[in-house]
Specification:
Blueprint (H helix, E strand, L loop, with lengths): L11 E4 L6 E5 L4 E7 L25 H8 L5 H14 L2 H4 L2 H8 L2 H31 L19 H16 L5 H42 L1
Helix pairs in contact: 1-5, 1-7, 2-5, 2-7, 6-7
Length: 221
């Protein structure tokens, strides 16, 4: 049986027995099946992680990491309703009535998407926390902490966790862990292009409508 560390011991590699060259991964609550050989026997009283390298073949891809990288897709549930909201706000009739714009800013069509944007950030933080836990259980020593994901509340702070995650995984395992980061970046680039095109078309139509109204007004005069 493995030499069980104290309940307060952090996740890490610990000797299987006193004087043993074999280490087993302790995930902070229980022993895992991951075993690692060392050339030098380790003291049974070691209280901190002995090494900072994961064994070869350690799984570094988690469903939670990919979900964190895919969260920009969820932004569509915010952008699409807001697009239609803008179509109702920026009309020649609405622009001529300041009260209608004020009322639109407090309407559910605007408030609900705004609330959903915060929910999406909360989901991103949750995915990062679950990703960190999965990496720890898989045997990655001291993965980049999920608390950095709170920078997502400061756009574009979501990159902080994903960049740090990839760098630490590369150092600990020698494997590439930047897949979720590239997915996150690619989806944001696509969304920026889509939103830009949509807004240009929208405000082009608004300008055309205003021009038509002015021309009609001049004709009547």
């Amino acid at each position: 049986m493995s030499n069980t560390p104290s309940n307060q011991a952090p996740p890490g590699w610990y000797p299987v027995a006193a004087g043993s060259t074999q280490l087993r991964w302790w995930d902070g609550t229980a022993w895992t099946e991951h075993v690692h050989e060392t050339a030098v026997p380790q003291a049974a009283t070691t209280a901190a992680p002995v090494v900072q390298q994961a064994p070869e073949g350690t799984q570094v891809s988690t469903i939670w990491g990919w979900l964190a990288g895919a969260t920009p897709l969820l932004s569509l549930v915010v952008y699409i309703p807001l697009y239609f909201w803008l179509q109702t706000v920026f009309t020649p009739q609405a622009l001529s009535n300041p009260n209608s714009i004020t009322a639109a800013a407090s309407s559910p069509s605007y408030l609900v998407p705004s609330l959903l944007s915060w929910v999406i950030i909360g989901l991103f933080v949750l995915f990062c926390a679950l990703d960190w836990r999965a990496l720890t259980r898989n045997g990655v020593p001291a993965p980049f902490h999920w608390a950095w994901s709170f920078f997502a509340f400061l756009s574009p702070g979501g990159l902080v966790y994903l960049i740090g995650r990839g760098i630490v995984i590369k150092r600990r395992t020698g494997q590439g862990g930047l897949g979720p980061l590239w997915l996150f970046v690619a989806l944001n680039v696509v969304l920026i292009i889509i939103v830009t095109v949509a807004l240009v078309a929208l405000f082009g139509n608004i300008a055309a409508g205003l021009s038509t109204n002015l021309n009609n007004g001049n004709g009547v005069a």
